[in-house]
Write a sequence for this structure.
């Protein structure tokens, strides 16, 4: 992973670095930092490239990477398939080599379409004096843009600017890849992007892409939609839009308080077993690629080394439990796995106990009793309780593994300090209450600083893992949110399918860019197994009623296929835990104005 930056100047005016942006980029890539200036065919047109590398695989390859022909690449990505990358190779060098052999736009688009994995990039193609840039199909890596006084800036991360600044940062839409003809720019004195959209099964791909791009294109720039007719090929199969012939399914409906036995009944059919085993296969492979693509020195950890290479954002919920169970299959038994569990301090134990009494989730309460977690600690939030219960399940699954359950406790004072100093810049340009809550929770979790308990003794602990697995993408594909139930009740399967299609279509702008910026700030890399192209293609191929049955109660119906998968993997009560959003499970939402709505503009970010 890297922090990448490119500044395109239409005049030879002197450029001074924004120190805040530079420091954010440096933290993303602490192991190599370099700058490179390239002059286009017109000497008035210059590009400043800056790259800051986090070494993740193969040999350390400094960036910007300039080849013998003068092409320049800054690359923030990982190749998990599509293009062959040998164990000793670095994917930046592989991409550079492939792009340098391209002589036409269609060839460049073909290379980018082939890559499986997350990426954001900027590429200077010297032969035609072109500047290419963009993000992968899902937008799993951040890329922002801004045009200000004859200067176009592209960067992984920016800085919060004054509301009075008319030249604001925006996220580069992940619906396309973009090309700038620098010859035309120098002549016209303005920036025009040619837009190459990702193709999908929809007939309105061009109009949808056009609408998204036009909403985000920087002021003073022009977007030309698909002038050549070339597109990128979608890396996933289209969403199955089938509607069941009958709404009355023959499955046994569990009772209102679901148990693991309910899942056993649903698994009884061969068809269900086949679906579950197929999901286990593709998801296990997605996890394998993400936990084994590590630098040589981290793969060679000795049995005496207690430093984990992989960490998981861990609540004890089904998404993170399945990732942990599958990671356990592919990480050597002598290496620990860090489970990062974040909690925000409740105001008083009485309030906490009152919240527990009001909590209707019987499964979580029984787990709390089993774990002996009913204490007066202000950090015994719901995710801490289910996290400890989940830890016990994983220890039963593999008692030989060292599971580092990292309790990350955050006070209101530290939250306010780090939000104002760091997190507000990383969340930017997103600015809602929800972005604030999730951005802050993920930032503290990814930092990994807390304590672990061994033999009833607590000791300070900071996770050193560079790879952080996150469960994002499961709810969006398997109807995990409460709004999916609402849509199903009002519009049936057809409405639910439309909702799921919308969820995956907006995940880049709603979640992934923000999470990449927040996690990358610690010199760590977010990896998203549920958004692996193979996983998404398999889930897209299934009719919606095989993925979720929202006529069933909470704890079973939503993400039904995933719950059956958890049971098949040998997990216990975690398989029937209802969905609980991170901002509520960690209790960060309780630390601020309770009258706020998630979609409200967050003044804490604006004034930061």
């Amino acid at each position: 992973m890297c922090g990448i930056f490119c500044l395109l100047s239409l005049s030879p005016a002197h450029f001074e670095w924004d120190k805040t942006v530079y420091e954010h980029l440096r933290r993303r890539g602490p192991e190599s930092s370099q700058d490179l200036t390239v002059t286009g065919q017109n000497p008035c047109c210059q590009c400043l490239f800056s790259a800051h590398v986090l070494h993740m695989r193969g040999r350390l390859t400094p960036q910007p990477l300039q080849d013998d022909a003068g092409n320049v690449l800054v690359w923030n990505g990982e190749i998990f398939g599509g293009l062959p990358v040998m164990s000793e190779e670095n994917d930046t060098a592989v991409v550079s080599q492939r792009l340098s052999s391209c002589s036409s736009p269609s060839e460049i688009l073909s290379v980018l379409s082939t890559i499986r994995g997350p990426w954001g990039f900027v590429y200077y193609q010297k032969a035609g004096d072109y500047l290419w840039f963009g993000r992968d199909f899902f937008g799993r890596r951040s890329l922002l843009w801004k045009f200000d006084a004859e200067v176009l800036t592209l960067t992984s991360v920016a800085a919060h600017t004054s509301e009075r600044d008319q030249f604001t940062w925006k996220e580069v839409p992940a619906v396309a890849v973009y090309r700038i003809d620098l010859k035309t720019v120098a002549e016209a004195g303005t920036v025009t992007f040619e837009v190459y959209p990702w193709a999908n099964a929809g007939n309105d791909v061009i109009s949808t892409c056009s609408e998204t791009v036009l909403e985000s294109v920087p002021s003073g720039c022009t977007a030309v939609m698909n002038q050549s007719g070339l597109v990128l090929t979608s890396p996933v199969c289209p969403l199955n839009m089938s509607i069941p012939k009958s709404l009355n399914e023959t499955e046994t409906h569990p009772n209102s308080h679901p148990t693991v036995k309910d899942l056993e009944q649903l698994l009884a059919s061969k068809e269900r077993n086949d679906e579950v085993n197929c999901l286990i296969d593709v998801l296990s492979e997605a996890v394998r690629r993400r936990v084994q693509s590590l630098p040589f020195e981290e793969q060679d950890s000795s049995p005496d080394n207690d430093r984990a290479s992989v960490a998981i954002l861990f609540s004890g919920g089904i998404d993170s439990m399945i990732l942990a169970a599958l990671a356990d299959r592919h990480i050597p038994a002598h290496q620990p796995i860090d489970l990062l569990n974040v909690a925000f301090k409740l105001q008083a134990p009485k309030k906490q106990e009152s919240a527990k009494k009001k909590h209707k989730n019987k499964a979580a309460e029984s787990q709390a009793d089993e774990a002996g977690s009913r204490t007066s600690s202000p950090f015994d939030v719901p995710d801490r309780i289910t996290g400890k219960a989940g830890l016990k399940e994983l220890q039963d699954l593999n008692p030989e593994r060292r599971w580092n359950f990292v309790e990350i406790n955050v006070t209101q004072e530290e939250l306010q300090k780090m939000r104002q100093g760091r997190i507000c810049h990383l969340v930017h340009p997103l600015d809602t209450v929800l972005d604030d809550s999730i951005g802050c929770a993920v930032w503290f979790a990814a930092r990994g600083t807390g304590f672990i308990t061994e033999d009833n003794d607590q000791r300070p602990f900071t996770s050193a893992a560079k790879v952080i697995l996150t469960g994002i993408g499961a709810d969006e594909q398997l109807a995990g949110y409460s709004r999916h139930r609402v849509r199903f009740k009002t519009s049936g399967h057809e409405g639910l399918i439309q909702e799921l299609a919308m969820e995956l279509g907006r995940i880049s702008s709603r979640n992934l860019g923000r999470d990449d910026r927040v996690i990358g700030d610690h010199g760590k890399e977010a990896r998203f197994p549920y958004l692996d192209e193979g996983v998404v293609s398999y889930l897209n191929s299934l009719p919606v009623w095989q993925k979720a049955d929202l006529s069933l109660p909470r704890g079973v119906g939503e993400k039904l296929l995933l719950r059956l998968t958890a049971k098949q993997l040998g997990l216990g009560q975690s398989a029937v835990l209802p969905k609980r959003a991170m901002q509520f499970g960690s209790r960060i939402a309780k630390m601020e104005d309770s009258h706020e709505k998630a979609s409200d503009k967050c003044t804490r970010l604006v004034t930061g």
Notes: The two ends are 27 Å apart (CA to CA). Residues 423 and 440 are 7 Å apart (CA to CA).
